[in-house]
Amino acid sequence: MKIESDFNDIDALGDDHLGSSSETPLRADAFKLSNSEKVDIIKDDVRHILETLGLDLNDDSLKGTPNRVAKMFVNEIFGGLNPDKKPNASTFENKYKYGEMLVEKNITVYSTCEHHLLPIVGRAHVAYISNGTVVGLSKMNRIVDYFAKRPQVQERLTIQIVKELQNVLDTEDVACVIDAKHLCVNSRGIKDIESSTVTSEFGGKFKEKTTRREFLDYIQLDTKF
């Protein structure tokens, strides 16, 4: 049967780190259902999973778990799938004529690996060089958080952050580096708790060796307060 063959092909991929494109693979009807309808469907699926594993959902500790997990999926850890939650990154004229790069480093990243639905936890470092407009500092954090709150691969997340800021600021001169731990590596499979994954995306002037080196030097600064 074709379906069985497809599952065998997927299983054969094992732990290979795969990605399809820089766009999150959403179906055309992704937002046909309301959030509350999605929660109702997902909680039944979670209940089925837990019962299949042999857990007694009449236990006081477990009876609310399906609903909690469903609400967490829809409203929190996968909330970045909803375009209504996309941050409004307003820009402003660069009146003070600041012409060097601006770096926002150590932005917390909480995401979820789309291959095993396990956490990705790390830091993002984002920079841009103004071509006449600037964006509020907190909006850079919010853009990172928005694209992180969906099933992800780290490479795609890095690219999406850069593309969004390039669009918001109308400049190619944007860069992002992410250093993160993947629990699909740290807690299962090879169970290497020390390793982390580093990805980068450099646009415009950041492709130049000296500009890129300056950015990388900035994010190495030991910031303490």
Structural overview:
Strands 5-2-3-6-7 form a 5-stranded mixed sheet. A two-stranded antiparallel sheet has the order 1-4. A hairpin with a 5-residue loop joins strand 2 and strand 3 (119-129). It is α+β, with helices and mostly antiparallel strands and 225 residues long. The chain contains 7 helices and 7 strands; from the N terminus they run αααββββαβαβαβα. Helix 2 (35-52) packs across helix 3. The model is unreliable at 1-5 (pLDDT under 50).
Layout of secondary structure:
Elements: H1 2-12, H2 35-52, H3 65-77, E1 91-93, E2 101-113, E3 119-129, E4 133-135, H4 137-148, E5 151-152, H5 154-169, E6 174-182, H6 183-186, E7 197-202, H7 209-219
Parallel strand pairs: 2-5
Antiparallel strand pairs: 1-4, 2-3, 3-6, 6-7
Helix pairs in contact: 2-3, 4-5
